[in-house]
Amino acid sequence: MSLGPEASVTDEKTAPTADAADRPGEQAIAGRSLKQIAWRRLKKDKVAIAGACVVIFLIVVAILAPLLIKLLGHPIDEYHNDALDTELGTGLPKGALGGMSWEYLLGVEPQTGRDIFSRIIYGAQTTLTVAFLSAFLSTLFGTIFGLAAGFLGGWVDSVISRIMDFLLAFPQLLFAIALLSVLPDEFFGLGPRWSRVGVLIGVIGFFGWPYIGRIVRGQTLSLREREFVEASRSLGARSGRILFRELLPNLAAPILVYTTLIIPTNILTEAALSFLGVGIPPPNPSWGGMLSDAVQFYRIDPMYMIIPGSVIFITVLAFNLFGDGLRDALDPKAR
Amino acid sequence: MLSYIVRRVFNAIITLLVVTAVTFGIFFAIPKAIGTDPALLYIGKQSDPAAIEGIRQKMGFDDPIYVQYGNFLKGIVAGREYSNGPDVTDCPAPCLGYSFSTDQEVTPLLLEDIPVTLSLALGAAVLWLIIGISFGVVSALRRGSFVDRAAMTTALAGVSLPVYFTGLLSSAIFVYALGWLPESNYKPFTEDPGQWFTSLILPWITLAFLFAATYARLTRANMLETLGEDYVRTARAKGLTERVVIGKHALRSGLTPIVTIFGLDLGALLGGAVLTENVFNLRGLGYQALNAIRQNDLPVILGVTLIAAFFIVFANLIVDLVYGWIDPRVRLA
């Protein structure tokens, strides 16, 4: 009894706001139908689409970073004394707005003359890698433990819930800072930059999983009692099948939404850790690290602070807009 | 109710024990594993071997980790004595050990920082509760209006702005460009209330902006949900005035989730607003923590983490108790 295609046809005829409320049965018919409804809603949400475009643009920029730097910028650690005002001895960038020009698109750093454009782009690579992979790690752990707790119940549930409560009741930022400061700077021969990226992914991802875990657990608890699971079980389905064919597809929407919404939080955390000097080690550029360097100069060269700050803001805002839109599209009750 | 309280208090103590054990393990086991000698950190690299050995014995760095942990706990409860024969140092309870870098007792060091953090966190909390909740309620009641859209756009921007950026930006504008406020120079309230206030205005606003944004979004969502409940419709149908319906029926249950979040947020902030304190040079717990971390000062790091955990666990406990009092169903769970 596949109503998938039919459902989407009728969906087109009705106003999108009425579809969920008038025919509650239809949402549960097939995963595909929900996907199509959600996609249709998302396409209409111009703000969310704008957010998505910015996100995609940033990802492309991060991937093409080496090429873009070659074409439009200068190597990240190259000093440019010619761009600085050395005569007065201040070491500030020449020209207005922190030395913005066609040569240096976003100006140069005071005192060193390093190209801010190149450093921002290179920082995007690091930040996005950390944010995405740590979100992936949180989602993976959160889904596994949340599913286990909700589905198995009993002592497994008690233990996992206790651990989640414990992790949420933990001075996380403080702990992350302290932990990062005692861990070695380099291992597995990865070099300082990627070693630290690995550690950051581990630490941020680890502290993030209880957020997703709690949601997955809650959803699993309610889904477990639904008729379709009961039906599947009465037909002789094993636990594995129920978990992966019945429960997981129904959990996909909330997992997707919360993964999207945890990415901006991770970006802020990574930037905060780099700002505090335990993130990406200099001379490797990171947005938080650039802000931290700017603390000494922001009174006389405010652009040096405004650029990395605005980049963080725009990136986080774009992810939040897209995540909010995705949530509204997948879960009409949220608004 | 009594058994509920006992259970909660018991849970809180267990959580604190686990936090100390984990923190202790990490800060003393990892340095050992990567070959950093805590005695060297304590005394400096140029010291002669005999002095290092003396310190090692005195501080008990050679004991197995569980013995060290046991002594650490004992120090908190009953105080402890460090000795290696002739050299005896007494550390009264609650003893958190000695700072590696300044050789001072950790407890009084941290007690000095608490008022700064307290001033910052409580002042900001008052601001963000008032701003966040009132905008959230107005947005929910006037859904789709100009006020709603403006407030929610600002709130979305607020949750996307890192506090260290807004902090720097606001000082650049209000202190250095416009000159409306003096450069931040904290004085305790008891010494100079005027300077205490002016030095905290910007930190309060910066911190409150971030949290108010979250609270406005949350309040709006909760209010919209409760306004759709049957009992609100019933209250309206009974002919109650809109004021009573909103104030007594919708707002009260709409705000219960806010109580939970508020407890957690305030607890976390009291343990040190690391970012805000460092941006504004406020010498509170967060400032101390970062300093300690930069100097590898393990006892101070451990001390701050413990105090922070204590505040969070304590706030959680209060929230749980308040909840049990508001909503009798919770007690049975």
UniProtKB/TrEMBL annotation, chain A:
It is a multi-pass membrane protein. Residues 1-25 are annotated as: Disordered. Residues 10-25 have a biased composition (Basic and acidic residues). Keywords: Cell membrane, Membrane, Transmembrane, Transmembrane helix, Transport. PROSITE patterns: ABC_TM1. It is found in: Cell membrane. Residues 124-323 form the ABC transmembrane type-1 domain. The chain crosses the membrane at residues 47-69, 132-156, 163-182, 194-212, 255-282, 302-323. Gene3D superfamilies: MetI-like. Its main location: membrane. Belongs to the binding-protein-dependent transport system permease family. This is ABC transporter permease. It comes from Paractinoplanes lichenicola.
From TrEMBL, chain B:
Keywords: Cell membrane, Membrane, Transmembrane, Transmembrane helix, Transport. The chain crosses the membrane at residues 9-30, 118-141, 153-176, 196-216, 258-280, 300-326. It is a multi-pass membrane protein. The keyword ATP-binding does not apply. It is found in: Cell membrane. Belongs to the binding-protein-dependent transport system permease family. This is ABC transporter permease.
